[in-house]
Amino acid sequence: MSAQFESKRLAGVLSLIVLGLNIASCTTDSKNVKTVSLVGAGASFPAPLYERWLSDYNQQNPNVEINYQAIGSGAGVQQLIKGTVDFAASDVGITNEQAAKVKRGVIALPLTAGSIVLAYNLTTTARQSSQANLPNNLKLSRQAYTDIFLGKITNWNHPQIAVANPGVNLPDLPIQVVHRTDSSGTTSVLTQHLSAISPEWKSKVGVGKSVAWSVGVGAKGNEGITALVQQIPGAIGYVEYAYAIQNKLPVAALENKSGNYITPTPESAARTLETVKLPADNLIAFITDPIGAQSYPIATYTWLLTYRQYQNPIKAQALKNFVNWALIEGQKSSLELGYIPLSKEVVIQAQSVAKKITE
């Protein structure tokens, strides 16, 4: 009787162990089903807004973790082509040639927009903390800012700058241009604009995510240019509006096609984008030199690039859910960070295209 009892007892213990393992397995499987991680990389232009979105979205959806690395539009597109990320971001979308390399197909979704500003530092020494007695929005004519980037205007008290800023005591300070070293959608948008307004720029430098700059020092990402402009007396560089505002850098009022000097704001950039019609087939379009009298001259959408097909249906659905949230709830925090909320028309277009993401 004792041996039989002991045998039954051991059998019961083994049954409980097996049951426990099964329960643990079910729990783990349940967690795997409910939890998903997505990885993206690309443009630094929208990075401050994306960071806010991903934090807010994770708080509301703790089972979804989305990580984004701001490595530049060009590098982001290459990662998408290689299949090493779940999504990418680019300020110039994606070309047909690049899209043809993605076997799973590509969908480009405008999620936000912003302006590219010329931020500057007119302190005369590195120790100065303010730019006293100088306006926060120096006026730069189309010829002036093109010639600065061509290396033809090399000092801040140059007559071409002075004539647009009467009464301003411009410092006798060398200009130090700061430009991107990485493959950058921001660079592409800026050089598209400069090529549109200057035949000399078009012939000497041209358009591209990377170009042979005539002058200046390089930095990586919008954050890199912002840091160098802050550090170098006399510096000027091009960054997304949010970077300049968050770091309290003065920005130039640029002359537009109508001859008006326009200070960059979300409102003036929104006027520019009102004239852009996104084609139904890929939702990618640019305006290189807007004609609106009150339009800021350099503004653009920035695109989230997803695969058309995902091998993992959970990832596909998680990404679709996030995109829909960004198009509706996410737009509410755009203005706060210096970005331009999408129009209702663009939101509807993007929602329609996002439905094509499949598993």
TrEMBL record:
<dbReference type="InterPro" id="IPR005673">
    <property type="entry name" value="ABC_phos-bd_PstS"/>
</dbReference>
<dbReference type="Pfam" id="PF12849">
    <property type="entry name" value="PBP_like_2"/>
</dbReference>
<comment type="similarity">
    <text>Belongs to the PstS family.</text>
</comment>
<dbReference type="GO" id="GO:0042301">
    <property type="term" value="F:phosphate ion binding"/>
</dbReference>
<dbReference type="InterPro" id="IPR024370">
    <property type="entry name" value="PBP_domain"/>
</dbReference>
<feature type="domain" description="PBP">
    <location>
        <begin position="35"/>
        <end position="327"/>
    </location>
</feature>
<dbReference type="GO" id="GO:0043190">
    <property type="term" value="C:ATP-binding cassette (ABC) transporter complex"/>
</dbReference>
<dbReference type="InterPro" id="IPR050962">
    <property type="entry name" value="Phosphate-bind_PstS"/>
</dbReference>
<dbReference type="GO" id="GO:0035435">
    <property type="term" value="P:phosphate ion transmembrane transport"/>
</dbReference>
<keyword id="KW-0592">Phosphate transport</keyword>
<keyword id="KW-0813">Transport</keyword>
<protein>
    <recommendedName>
        <fullName>Phosphate-binding protein</fullName>
    </recommendedName>
</protein>
